[in-house]
């Protein structure tokens, strides 16, 4: 069992670097068995301090990160793929260095129960969380109701720590694939600002990147209702989708178009595949720009040339090279420019007609 004196010294923020390393080693080893969790949490309950008001925001934010990392570790143990992850121990070490707050009991309680303590400390926890999938990365989020969300490149998901009331509402900026937990009495609502997509127990994809004129929804299974948000947090239904249907809503013109059939190209991204099926070069450039964080300009005389190909986790220049072999285009990678602050501008690529 862990040396009680080292634990108490840590809780008082008085342990040495060597003692802290010993504590972390125990946490990741014997500390994760039932006896270790019980022992550590019992000590936490007898020691838990009163946190000053000015530290509550920092404390809550750190707990959010720990909670997210616990979810990812639990997924890894089940053999589920996780694209973006960080070791809990790294957050734990950072907590000791930054906040001087005793978080050991919280970490153990999360590891053993998969949830936060519902006692007096609950008032410290923020109600809404935000997860960001950085450019070039995808991530997976497990919501408290059991819904699984795959976030695509450069996307942001805002959601409550726990769903209360008659609806489960989240806010999406970017693209995500949802596998919604089935609770018929509590509909699941994806809010994009321009459209609300409502489901019960459903698998579907939503694309709603800021700056795009189109919000797209692809239904894999189940049923969703598309609606326009109105005053009073209400939604005006505009249509119901069926499995295998892809709907695009133009936020400028207000027009909606729908296709039914093969939907693979709309959802392949979550498996690391990039599918272009008779896609205009302009659309290809838009997706590559977002995926690789570059600016791709397309000449007017080649914008509507079509491109059909599938890539699996391939680098940008391999994709561009293949494009030049199968279509009458060529590309130029322009040198990046040094900015006044010392950083460099985003990579710019120009696609033109091959002569």
**Through-space gap between termini:** 75 Å
Quickly give the structural class.
alpha+beta
Number of discrete helical segments: 9
- The CATH topology of the largest domain turns out to be Jelly Rolls
Radius of gyration: 24 Å
What is the CATH architecture term of the largest domain? Sandwich
Largest sheet: 13 strands, mixed
> In total, how many domains does the architecture comprise?
3
Short description:
The protein is α+β, with helices and mostly antiparallel strands. The chain contains nine helices and 18 strands.
Please tell me about this protein's structure.
The chain has 9 helices and 18 strands. With 355 residues, the protein is an alpha+beta fold. The chain has 3 domains: 1-125, no CATH class; 127-263, Jelly Rolls (Sandwich), CATH 2.60.120; 272-353, 3-Layer(bab) Sandwich (Phage tail protein beta-alpha-beta fold), CATH 3.55.50.
Write the layout of secondary structure elements.
Elements: H1 4-11, H2 17-28, H3 34-47, H4 53-77, H5 88-98, H6 104-113, E1 128-133, E2 139-142, E3 148-151, E4 155-160, E5 168-179, E6 188-191, E7 196-199, E8 203-208, E9 214-221, E10 224-230, E11 234-241, E12 245-250, E13 256-260, H7 264-267, E14 273-280, H8 281-292, E15 295-298, E16 306-312, H9 316-326, E17 329-334, E18 348-353
Parallel strand pairs: 5-6, 15-18
Antiparallel strand pairs: 1-4, 2-3, 3-5, 4-5, 5-8, 6-7, 7-10, 8-9, 9-12, 10-11, 12-13, 14-16, 17-18
Helix pairs in contact: 3-6, 4-5, 4-6
